[in-house]
């Protein structure tokens, strides 16, 4: 609970006690004033949870003014009001993030970047260059201290509920949350690997602050990229705002084609049915606005990385000087998880990618070797209602490895956490308690869930980006038995048998490298061939 929320509830409880004790108006007046001030401060901070308590405080103020705020009945009513006023804060807390556990204090800075080479992206005017909000977390110098950064902006917090299809006010209190990262402190000397971080569709760039701060405290520079148009409403320093771009979503024919492709591919009961459905999924995606988004997010990553390496904004120059651009990773959640391996595959110095429960909208990565280590974390929630209910298979089983060797590629880690829901792979795990949390984010304990994600990301990156000889993933699975390895070997078994029945031997299938279209993110001709030998 926030400080203002705590004062509000405490003042209401005190009012109830004073009423029961028959204390005169002076003492009650002070309690009412405290409640009204605290309620006003909380509401000014967009803490909708304070609204019931503030209303109760206004009613109490009227009773005090009329000299009627005493007696057992009034005291019982105020006590009930205090309890009911505390419930919104309990069920939907104004949370605090866990303190980073690494040796470095965490610094953070917000910057803005403009790609003048791309204009009119995702519904913007044809002459408007692509503008990107970026937040950087980095290892701070020992002993440094500074003001803690705001978790996210007011504009972003006010639009998040709407973009997620929840009550518009549900996440407004995020504007009151303070993160652990300290604004503008000196960077620690050294050369630190760079992690590009991507939020989910309709989401906000700070959605995985807990992971970012954890990595920064352990010696990584984390660069979180906002993707305007496919995000919350963003407000830039000059007052310019970019709202969510809904264009293309109203195209019923394109949406129907995409949904049909998803249902055919994900809903098929057999491997061969999914093989046939994949081409429909590819074609449906190609004609939908989601294809423009996939290209835009990939290019956002490439631009931000290149621009930081060439000439970082002056405010971040001292931080970027400590970046080691020879050691890069790309991570993301949901649509950002799809963008992460897509961008990583096109960055020469990208050593690893993390996909937190994202489908692959880069179809050139189906039946293809990513060529980099990948951590793929799945949840107990399906990608789509049409997806077949089978925890042993997943649509992403067909991406990131050639099918002939699926499940055998070193460095490809697929895992599943059944106790998490899709949105639980964010800081939102802290945003609700039972029973709401289970429906929205999963049944896993919030602290446990965040630690699981933090440890998985750090252990994976330490091994494949820093080159440390740790025991990932065995040690991770031992610490977190609720996470289990997910095996894509069923794809290999089917593909080899499918081709063998058509006269294409396993030895030949294993050495064939299917040709896809990396520039267009499309499947290759193999997807419609009778067998791999006919590609």
What does this 3D model show about the protein?
- This protein is of the alpha/beta class.
- 39% of the residues lie in helices and 16% in strands.
- The chain has 16 helices and 13 strands.
- It has helices at residues 3-21, 25-44, 51-65, 72-91, 154-163, 209-217, 252-267, 271-286, 289-311, 317-320, 335-344, 436-440, 446-464, 474-479, 489-500, 506-511; strands spanning 106-119, 129-139, 148-150, 178-183, 192-198, 221-225, 234-235, 241-242, 323-333, 350-356, 374-379, 412-417, 483-485.
- An eleven-stranded mixed β-sheet has the order 3-4-1-2-6-5-9-10-11-12-13, sandwiched between helices. Strands 7-8 form a two-stranded antiparallel sheet.
- The longest helix has 23 residues, at 289-311.
- It is globular, with a radius of gyration of 26 Å.
- The model has no long low-confidence stretch (mean pLDDT 94).
Task: List the keywords.
single chain, 535 residues, alpha/beta, 11-stranded mixed β-sheet, two-stranded antiparallel ribbon, 16 helices, 13 strands
């Amino acid at each position: 609970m926030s400080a203002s929320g705590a004062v509000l509830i405490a003042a209401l409880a005190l009012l109830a006690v004073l009423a029961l004790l028959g204390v005169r108006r002076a003492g009650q007046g002070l309690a009412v004033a405290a409640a009204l001030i605290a309620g006003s401060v909380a509401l000014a901070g967009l803490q909708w949870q304070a609204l019931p308590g503030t209303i109760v405080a206004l009613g109490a103020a009227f009773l005090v003014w009329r000299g009627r705020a005493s007696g057992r009945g009034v005291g019982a009513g105020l006590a009930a009001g205090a309890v009911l006023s505390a419930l919104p804060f309990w069920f939907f807390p104004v949370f605090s993030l866990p303190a980073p556990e690494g040796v470095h204090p965490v610094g953070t800075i917000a910057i803005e970047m403009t790609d003048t080479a791309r204009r009119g992206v995702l519904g913007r005017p044809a002459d408007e260059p692509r503008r990107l909000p970026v937040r950087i977390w980095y290892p701070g110098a020992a002993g440094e201290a500074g003001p803690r950064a705001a978790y996210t902006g007011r504009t972003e917090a006010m639009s998040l509920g709407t973009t997620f299809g929840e009550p518009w006010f549900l996440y407004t209190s995020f504007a009151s949350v303070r993160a652990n990262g300290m604004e503008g402190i000196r960077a620690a000397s050294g050369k630190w690997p760079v992690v590009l971080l991507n939020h989910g569709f309709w989401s906000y760039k700070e959605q995985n602050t807990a992971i970012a701060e954890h990595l920064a405290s352990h010696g990584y520079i984390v660069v979180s990229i906002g993707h305007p148009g496919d995000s919350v409403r963003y407000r830039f320093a000059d007052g310019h705002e970019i709202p969510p771009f809904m264009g293309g979503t109203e195209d019923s024919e394109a949406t129907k084609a995409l949904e049909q492709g998803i249902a055919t591919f994900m809903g098929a009961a057999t491997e061969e049915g999914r093989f046939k459905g994949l081409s429909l999924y590819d074609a449906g995606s190609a004609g939908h606005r989601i294809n423009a988004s996939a290209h835009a997010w990939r290019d956002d990553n490439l631009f931000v990385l290149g621009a930081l390496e060439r000439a970082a904004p002056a405010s971040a120059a001292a931080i970027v000087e400590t970046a080691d651009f020879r050691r890069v990773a790309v991570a993301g959640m949901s649509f950002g998880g799809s963008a992460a391996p897509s961008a990583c595959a096109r960055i020469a110095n990208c050593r690893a990618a993390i996909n937190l429960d994202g489908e692959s909208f880069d179809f050139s990565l189906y039946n293809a070797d990513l060529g980099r280590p990948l951590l793929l974390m799945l949840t107990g929630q399906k990608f789509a209602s049409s997806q077949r209910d089978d925890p042993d298979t997943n649509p992403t089983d067909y991406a990131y490895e050639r099918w002939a060797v699926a499940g055998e590629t070193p460095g490809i880690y697929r895992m599943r956490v059944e106790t998490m829901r899709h949105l639980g792979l964010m800081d939102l795990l802290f945003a609700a308690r039972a029973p709401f949390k289970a429906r929205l984010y999963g049944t896993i304990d919030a602290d446990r869930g965040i630690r699981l994600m933090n440890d998985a990301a750090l252990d994976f990156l330490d091994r494949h980006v820093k080159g440390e000889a740790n025991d990932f993933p065995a040690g991770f699975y031992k610490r977190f038995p609720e996470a289990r390895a997910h095996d894509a070997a069923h794809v290999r078994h089917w593909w080899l048998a499918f081709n063998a029945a058509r006269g294409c031997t396993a030895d030949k299938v294993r050495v064939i490298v299917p040709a896809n279209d990396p520039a267009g993110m499309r499947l290759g001709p193999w997807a419609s061939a009778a067998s791999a030998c006919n590609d």
